[in-house]
């Protein structure tokens, strides 16, 4: 468990205690850079799945007229991959890259599709969105170009296009999903960049949190499913280590509901897993900066989380028959 000082140094954009205006947001945007390309890393792997799955373009993001458009802008197709399963089967949603910088979420969703999804297509309708926030993926960012966090924008008042386009698409299917697994990471940059930037943007004081060394889950406090979370953790534990609680019995400042799991009010705060009324939801959190985990393990941990959840649901349905 990494233990940072409670107070981080002031962020170097804006005035302490004052929320950002458009000028500060533009200043933040101007310093961003592209480090990788969605069209090179993600789209070819999705295209290669078309012989086995349906690939659906559910929207587009047009960021061609933002600051530094020549090097920072982009036009992005938003793609979902759907299994060719019987329509009477329950729907399970998997999302990655809601926070584009969280690499194993994107790679885990793609690897699951490439290696494991076909084994579950006779049991579930699978809907996988590998990269919800392609601009964030390219710039290694938590926010979109408007300094908005997509993973706080899935509620009724959400404004991030990344979130609202996906929510509209899923709602338009007319199917209440059985489950939704959203693939995330908690990184050291949460304390060095993203939380200080958030505090500066909102004009509040930042308090760093202890970054858990290991994998953990976020359940929905309004409809908790501890056995579902435990099945996911048991599966992941075969790949990488599960995070221990800190000295206060917490993870990222939140009390544990069981070892390796905390709970958030996902619908209230606009998280991706709160966009439907799916009874089984889980947000994964991988720690890619751990000296005890490789990038390959982080990706495989995400795959193991998905398969662990699906195996639990498949066994549950089998017992109900």
Automatic annotation (TrEMBL):
Record-given protein name: Peptidase M14 domain-containing protein
GO terms classed as biological process: proteolysis
CDD domains tied to this protein: M14_REP34-like (cd06231)
Organism: Simiduia aestuariiviva
Ranges of residues in domain Peptidase M14: 33-321
GO molecular function terms listed in the Swiss-Prot or TrEMBL record: metallocarboxypeptidase activity; zinc ion binding
Family the UniProt entry places it in: Belongs to the peptidase M14 family.
InterPro entries in UniProt: DUF2817 (IPR021259), Peptidase_M14 (IPR000834)
């Amino acid at each position: 468990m990494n233990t940072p000082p409670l107070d981080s140094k002031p962020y170097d954009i804006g005035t302490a205690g004052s929320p950002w205006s458009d000028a500060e947001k533009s200043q933040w945007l101007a310093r961003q850079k592209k480090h990788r390309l969605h069209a090179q890393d993600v789209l070819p792997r999705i295209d290669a799945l078309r012989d086995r799955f349906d690939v659906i373009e559910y929207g587009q993001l047009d960021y061609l007229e933002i600051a530094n458009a020549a090097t920072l802008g982009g036009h992005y197709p938003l793609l979902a991959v759907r299994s060719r399963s019987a329509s009477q089967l329950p729907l399970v949603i998997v999302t990655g890259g809601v926070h584009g910088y969280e690499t194993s979420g994107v790679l885990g969703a793609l690897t699951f599709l490439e290696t494991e999804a076909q084994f579950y297509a006779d049991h579930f309708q699978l809907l996988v969105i590998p990269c919800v926030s392609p601009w964030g993926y390219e710039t290694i960012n938590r926010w979109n170009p408007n300094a908005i966090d997509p993973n706080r924008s899935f509620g009724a008042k959400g404004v991030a296009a990344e979130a609202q386009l996906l929510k509209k698409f899923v709602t338009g299917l007319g199917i209440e999903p059985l489950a939704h697994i959203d693939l995330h990471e908690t990184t050291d940059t949460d304390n060095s960049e993203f939380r200080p930037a958030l505090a500066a943007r909102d004009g509040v004081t930042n308090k760093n949190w202890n970054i858990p060394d290991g994998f953990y889950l976020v359940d929905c406090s309004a409809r908790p499913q501890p056995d579902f979370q435990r099945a996911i953790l048991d599966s992941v534990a075969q790949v990488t280590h599960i995070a221990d609680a800190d000295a206060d019995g917490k993870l990222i400042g939140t009390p544990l509901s069981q070892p390796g799991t905390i709970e958030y009010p996902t619908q209230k705060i606009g998280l991706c897993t709160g966009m439907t009324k799916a009874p089984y939801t889980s947000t994964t959190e991988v720690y890619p900066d751990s000296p005890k985990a490789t990038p390959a393990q982080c990706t495989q941990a995400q795959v193991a989380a998905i398969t662990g959840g699906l195996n639990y649901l498949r066994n549950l349905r089998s017992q109900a028959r």
